[in-house]
Specification:
It holds the Pfam family Peptidase_S51. With 218 residues, the protein is α/β, with parallel strands linked by helices. It is built from seven helices and ten strands. The relative contact order is 0.19.
């Protein structure tokens, strides 16, 4: 897959341009599915915040970019309806827009639903994550970011070989010093990124796209 891993969504022209490059077409010609699942694993998220994401009214620009079509893919529903129904929905999409919340909860339902197993067969699909929707692609998120009580540990999918500390300086507990302590325990390369930064990954090649602040550890 082609990955655009953000902290705060498509927040500036540079990230917007990177998204269009990954799509290979204008946003208005692309079909999108949005995934709100991670919200339900985090205690700070609510049905209202999930609706704001889907409706394009969240602080993280994702669903409101002018897509040709936009649908909702709720991963918790997929195991009960059969792959023969939902797999075609994904194969017909150009991009998956994946909201934040708890990355371990999202990881669980990506595996439980079968979406994680499907991803390697989607080389042209673009994955745009915000916060946990980005962190789920990393090998570990660090114990500080685990909010789902049933999470066995902080491990996630490991599609990329680095970890992400999102929302740099957006919250009192997300300072660079906090990120340095977080990174010291991971044992993998890591990036702290703010709301104006994204990490683009294509065929294993990484590029930081930023109009803000970011730091690499390790």
């Amino acid at each position: 897959m082609k990955l655009l891993l953000t902290s705060g969504g498509v927040t500036n022209p540079s990230i917007h341009s990177a998204l269009v490059q990954l799509l290979g077409k204008p946003i208005g010609d692309a079909n999108a599915l949005c995934i709100p699942t991670a919200e339900y694993g985090h205690p700070m998220c609510t049905p209202a915040s999930a609706w704001r994401f889907i409706a394009g009214r969240s602080p993280s620009p994702m669903c409101d970019l002018g897509w040709k079509s936009l649908g909702v893919l709720e991963l918790t529903a997929l195991p009960t309806i059969g792959a023969e129904r939902w797999v075609p929905w994904i194969r017909e999409a150009d991009v998956l827009l994946v909201d934040g919340g708890d990355a371990t909860y999202l990881c669980h339902w990506m595996r439980e639903s079968g979406l994680a197993d499907l991803l390697p067969s989607l080389p042209d699909m673009v994955w745009v994550g915000v916060s946990a929707g980005s962190m789920v692609m990393t090998p570990r998120i660090g114990k500080d970011f685990v909010e789902w009580p049933s999470a066995p540990d902080d491990r996630t999918l490991g599609v990329v070989d680095f970890s992400i500390f999102p929302h740099l300086d957006a919250f009192p507990e997300n300072t660079l010093a906090d990120a340095e302590r977080w990174a010291a325990d991971l044992g993998v390369p890591a990036y702290a990124i703010d709301e104006q930064t994204a990490i683009k990954v294509v065929d294993g090649s990484l590029e930081v796209v930023s109009e803000g602040q970011w730091t690499k550890f390790g």
